[in-house]
Amino acid sequence: MELQLLILLFIIGGVAGALYATTQVSTPLFIVSAVLLFLPALGVELSGVLLPVIATAVVSFIPILLLEWVRDMKERKVDSVVLIALSPGAAMGGVIGAQLVSFMSPIYFKVALSILVLLLVCRGWLSARQRLQNTNNAYLGNLNSHALRMPIGLFIGVVSMMAGGAGKIMAETVLTKSSVDDEHRHSTAVGVALFVSIAAMVGFSFPAMPLSLPNTDGFIGGIQLLSCLVLAVSQMLFYLLCREKGNRLDRLVLTIGFVFFMLIAASRVWLMAL
């Protein structure tokens, strides 16, 4: 693998880890978008790279999710009842979504990515409105006894994988409209994303269709091992360096910047021949 590509991945992973530590926005979505934008500058053909890019980005995020989930469980910040209710469907969705990525048309990736970006925008607007009005409409009620808890988890896993996400954004959006309180929402979403990502790792390791790339050395299924290691190390390093750093204004500015970047990236992806 070219040194230039590894350096690019290390930089992207570092930025992603710092962003997650500050804004708590899932990093695979940023990594997939950034890699697709910068690969042409290195002379890499984009045709056929969607599966390895998504698979490698999602799997590289697992160590941070695991670290956060263990810490939150120790501090009793996770709504275990809701997590248990959503996890079976979410894990199944992760496997199915990983299988779909291996043979789906790029148009479905573009649509799914656009959905997640719109969710980011809507979440920011709704959060600001909720703080102003001090209201929270729990339309979904108690997810533990909700009749659609399995389909909801399945939807989270499938759409997140198709968009190159880990499931955290969609899980937090769903939990916002449930009876889960603000204190437990983020930690519970981390748990859901962990189950989605681990299940997806299995799906990516045994994809429904083989890679269409000419050189597949160093791959396990759709996961490029060296790239995954570089991304995981850089993300963890900068996540630990930036964790609990910055004030509310820093987080707000970085979140707005991230949303604008994702809007630009999503619009550019529609013009790419993947």
TrEMBL record:
Keywords: Cell membrane, Membrane, Transmembrane, Transmembrane helix. It is found in: Cell membrane; Membrane. Pfam families: TauE. Belongs to the 4-toluene sulfonate uptake permease (TSUP) (TC 2.A.102) family. This is Probable membrane transporter protein. InterPro entries: TM_pro_TauE-like (IPR002781). Signal peptide: none annotated. The chain crosses the membrane at residues 49-69, 81-100, 107-126, 188-206, 218-240, 252-271. It is a multi-pass membrane protein. The keyword Cell membrane applies.
